[in-house]
Automatic annotation (TrEMBL):
Protein name: Dynein heavy chain AAA lid domain-containing protein
One Pfam assignment: AAA_lid_11
InterPro entries, per database record: AAA_lid_11, AAA_lid_11_sf, DHC, P-loop_NTPase
Domain of life from the UniProt record: Eukaryota
Ranges for domain Dynein heavy chain AAA lid: 55-92
Signal peptide: none
Source organism per UniProt: Bracon brevicornis
GO BP term, pick one: microtubule-based movement
Taxonomic classification: Eukaryota, Metazoa, Ecdysozoa, Arthropoda, Hexapoda
Gene Ontology molecular function: any one: dynein light intermediate chain binding
GO CC entries: dynein complex
């Protein structure tokens, strides 16, 4: 039996104690964020513009900038003076 769950205080401790636990975490860092964001872009979205060289440079800049925002979020008050919740929907 495979179970998946997010961390929750309501999850029964008896099941946790009797289980083999496995965790997975997404890769971290600027490069991993950029790869993940590029995977969100479809081929049609990538080739939509007639000035493809300029569009691809602009898209790279946007992906790079969004990845930096996501990395800065890790530092909380050191990265920003207000807590922002940047996520993939902001990129879209």
């Amino acid at each position: 039996l495979w179970l998946s769950s997010s961390p929750s205080p309501q999850f029964p401790i008896s099941i946790l104690q009797a289980s083999v636990k496995m965790t997975t975490e997404p890769p971290k860092g600027l490069k991993a964020n950029m790869k993940r964001l590029y995977r969100l872009i479809t081929e049609d979205q990538f080739n939509v513009c007639k000035a493809s060289a300029k569009y691809k440079k602009l898209l790279f800049g946007l992906v790079f900038f969004h990845s930096i925002l996501l990395e800065r979020k890790k530092f909380q008050q050191l990265g920003w003076n207000t807590i922002y919740s940047f996520n993939d929907s902001d990129f879209e």
